[in-house]
Amino acid sequence: MIENSLKVTKSDRRAFMRLPIEERRRILAQQAEAMIEHYQQDLTWQDWTSFGLEALSISCPVLLQKN
Fold first, then answer.
1. 38 touches 2 (CB < 8 A)
2. What's the pTM value of the predicted model, to 2 decimals?
3. Model confidence over 35-65: pLDDT tens digits?
4. In which band, very low, low, confident or very high, does the pLDDT at 66 lie, cut at 50, 70 and 90?
5. What distance in Å separates the CA atoms of residue 26 and residue 7, rounded to the nearest whole number?
6. CA pair distance 28, 22, nearest whole angstrom
7. Residues 35-62: b if buried by 16+ CB within 10 A, e if exposed
8. Torsion of CA 2, 30, 25, 19, to 10 degrees
């Protein structure tokens, strides 16, 4: 499982944004690749994405009203 212990500071974000775009893309691609395995192994994240507006209508029927 991915650890949430890494805290990204504002200065870290600024340093990242100062990198050349090619370097930022490389880093982001590495991070995305690392997350593939996580999301393929732990499918619990799909639970909240598998419902539609019908599920929301039980608690908030206004969402399904047409204007």
1. yes
2. 0.52
3. 888 778 877 766 666 666 566 555 555 555 5
4. low
5. 21
6. 10
7. eeeeeeeeeeeeeeeeeeeeeeeeeeee
8. 80
